[in-house]
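Quick one:
INPUT:
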């Protein structure tokens, strides 16, 4: 989402120079051989290219796609692969929209995620299920933070975690710190962007320093990723992200 005029391997190298990991989406668009030479720590990538959770045909396609993706990810050392309730098309619009999610759909989604966990155990990877706001992703089943928590906690296997995207939670539900606490036992990654605008922390309404402090107090030790655009200079945006998630650590140390 930064330096889009530059090749992907240049972007990965620059993030690495700045001390960040690298998240990759749409991996078929990129030259994986070049990305392997950069020396980056690739932290997360999309876990599927097609398929859905809540119907048999979609589940079979999802499992087939997820296995292919896991193999591609292992080339780069990726240990987290991301899923949504359904496939997303242009502009993040679900490829199959639903006005209502039925009971049988819930049961099928849980069954599909158990199959995903079996695959993950075979491949030695972890999948995350990401929440999405329905304002920007209308008709997406299992998009709400509450729905993602319900599914992941009901499966309750270490191969499936929550990708808690706080940008989407802010738009869909708000109350970020309480949602962090509710989801804490199952969080595999926290993703951030400010709102409105989906840019770096400090560009909008969310007090990410307070969120980061709360996560530390809760005992969260997992990764935090910025899935955001830069409101101006990309390197300043990255430093704003770093500051939001490390300033509370410096303040804590200075009290001693």
């Amino acid at each position: 989402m930064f330096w889009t005029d530059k090749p992907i391997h240049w972007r990965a190298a620059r993030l690495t120079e700045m001390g960040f990991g690298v998240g990759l989406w749409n991996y078929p668009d990129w030259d994986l051989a070049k990305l392997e030479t950069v020396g980056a720590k690739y932290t997360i990538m999309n876990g599927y290219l097609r398929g859905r959770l809540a119907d048999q045909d979609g589940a079979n396609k999802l499992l087939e796609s997820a296995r292919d993706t896991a193999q591609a990810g292992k080339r780069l050392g990726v240990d987290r692969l991301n899923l949504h309730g359904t496939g997303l098309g242009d502009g993040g619009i679900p490829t199959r929209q639903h006005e209502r999610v039925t009971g049988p759909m819930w049961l099928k989604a849980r069954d599909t995620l158990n199959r995903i966990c079996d695959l993950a155990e075979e491949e030695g990877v972890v999948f995350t299920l990401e929440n999405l706001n329905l304002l920007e992703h209308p008709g997406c089943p299992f998009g709400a933070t509450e729905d993602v928590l319900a599914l992941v906690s009901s499966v309750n296997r270490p191969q499936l975690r929550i990708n808690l995207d706080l940008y989407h939670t802010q738009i869909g539900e708000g109350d970020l710190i309480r949602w962090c606490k509710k989801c804490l036992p199952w969080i595999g990654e926290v993703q951030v962007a400010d709102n409105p605008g989906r840019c770096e922390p400090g560009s909008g309404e969310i007090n990410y320093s307070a969120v980061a402090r709360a996560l530390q107090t809760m005992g969260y030790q997992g990764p935090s990723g910025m899935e955001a655009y830069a409101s101006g200079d990309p390197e300043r945006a990255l430093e704003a992200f770093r500051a939001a998630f490390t300033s509370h650590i410096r303040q804590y140390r200075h009290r001693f």
